[in-house]
Amino acid sequence: MAIVVGHLGTPEGTEALVAAMTEARRREAELVVVAAKGDPGGAELDTLRTRLADAGVEHRIVTGSGDLADDLVRHAAESTPGLIVIGLRRRSPVGKLILGSGAQRILLEAPCPVLAVKP
């Protein structure tokens, strides 16, 4: 079973990563971290690898294609899906009527449960 999460340097992305790490440890599952295309590599990914290793989380970091919603759903489908974790940002009253298109696509197309967290 795998827990799939995107790597984003936003408060929502950080909260999703923390929740995904917690779920991976709790379920004794592999954590698949999808790094967004164009995501800075090098030091930032090294820091991420160290953080995951220090947390004792079995993990794999993969590079996305540029469409994070598609990448998360695809990687969940390619592994034995357990859970996709996404971060949601606060929205205006009008924005609350319409969920973000990426989040909506993930919720509708996911082959497994989706955990949505917010900072």
Automatic annotation (TrEMBL):
InterPro entries tied to this protein: Rossmann-like_a/b/a_fold, Universal_stress_UspA, UspA
UspA domain boundaries: 48-118
Transmembrane segments: none
Superkingdom of origin: Bacteria
Classification via SUPFAM superfamilies: Adenine nucleotide alpha hydrolases-like
Family assignment from sequence similarity: Belongs to the universal stress protein A family.
Name used for this protein in its record: Universal stress protein
